[in-house]
Amino acid sequence: MSSVEIPVTADQGPDAALIERARRLFSGRVDFLLSAPGLEFIPDPAVPEVAFAGRSNVGKSSLLNAITGRKALARISVTPGRTQELNFFEVGGLPGELPDFRLVDMPGYGFAKAPPAVVERWRQLVREFLRGRVVLKRALVLIDSRHGVKQVDIDMMRMLDESAVGYRLVLTKADKVKASELAAVHASTLAEARKHSAAFPVVAVTSSETGLGIAELRAAVLADAEI
Q1: Are 38 and 90 in contact (CB under 8 A)?
Q2: Whose CB has fewer CB within 10 Å in the chain, the N or C terminal residue?
Q3: What b/e sequence results for 146-164 when a residue is b if at least 16 CB atoms lie within 10 Å of its CB, and e otherwise?
Q4: pLDDT tens digits along 68-126
């Protein structure tokens, strides 16, 4: 894909020192903690958390693996909607002790092939988690670069707005589209972000396959966890 100029705001992203600190942290301990099918199973709110949300098959597991530098930390499935629970991962610290923070992989939304009862259970789980999790510092809402923002993404953004959870929009699979198309999707996604009270006014552009934007997003996650 040819290079593309992505407009940026006054916030130019993390500096080199933060990028390096994030790289060193994620090269250390990153462990799967547990899967929670209900709120009664989630860990105690003892450390900061950053959550990942996105449509089914948006590339959430691949992005988590890329950010953490692991090949299979988050399971990748060809079946959309495979993630049906809240999955918690611990970052930093020593085994047996509290981590520096946690990553939370939320169930993919869209649910094209899921029964209505399952869809509603997932939606209720996510809604209650967002509204009651005091240690949740930021959410990342992943948007497929090939498709742009869809109504289900807007619904998720509104849920985050209502829950007063700040979030970043992250374009995934940027290597799958032409430069001109990527620039257009970036612009339309940024325009949508500006309509939402809890959205961060910068849109990240990433590719888990090429590594585009991964180091910067990793640093942003660290910064969010330390808010």
Answers
A1: no
A2: C
A3: eebbeebbeebbebbbebe
A4: 998 878 664 444 444 578 999 999 998 889 999 999 999 888 765 667 887 788 888 99
Going by DSSP bridges, is the β-strand pair 30-36/101-105 parallel, antiparallel, or unpaired?
unpaired
Establish if 114 belongs to a structural domain.
yes
Q: Are strands 86-91 and 30-36 parallel, antiparallel or unpaired?
A: antiparallel
Let me know: does 62 contact 204? Beta carbons within 8 Å. Answer: no
Instruction: Return d(Cα 73, Cα 132) in angstroms, integer.
Output: 26
Would 36 be classed as within a structural domain?
yes
> Domains in the chain: how many in total?
1
Torsion angle of the four alpha carbons 176, 106, 221, 31, in this order, in degrees rounded to the nearest 10: -110
Domain CATH for 30: 3.40.50.300
The contacts of residue 130 (CB under 8 Å, 6+ apart) are 51, 136, 139, 159, 160, 163, 165
CA distance 149 to 158: 13
Is 1 contained in some domain?
Answer: no
On whether residue 8 sits in a domain, the answer given is: no
| pLDDT tens, residue by residue, 45-69 | 999 999 999 998 899 999 999 999 9
